[in-house]
Design brief:
Strand content: over 45%
Low-confidence stretches: none
Shape: globular
Number of helices: 0
Distance between the termini: 12 Å
Length: about 100
Amino acid sequence: MKSYWLGNTLILESLPNPQNAYMLIRLNIENDVATGSWHETTAPNGEFKGAQYSGSGQLVVNPQTFAMEGKWAGAGFDQKLQRIRVYAGNWEITPVG
């Protein structure tokens, strides 16, 4: 992932891999809380068959290390159920380098 700032918004963006899987995260950080949105395009020959997912997330930011921990949620197509469903999970974002 590469990261850069656009005003108060932290942008995290992956470089597409050989299968063109890709992720983009936009987080507005205020008072040690990051709130934002994400978009993911999965690999066409992977488990999710090129599906696109998007959603929101909110994380608590450690002001000393800038590591973030929180939750994400988003809608996407469930291949097994053959319908749209809401997914949710934990997020940990840690700066490297």
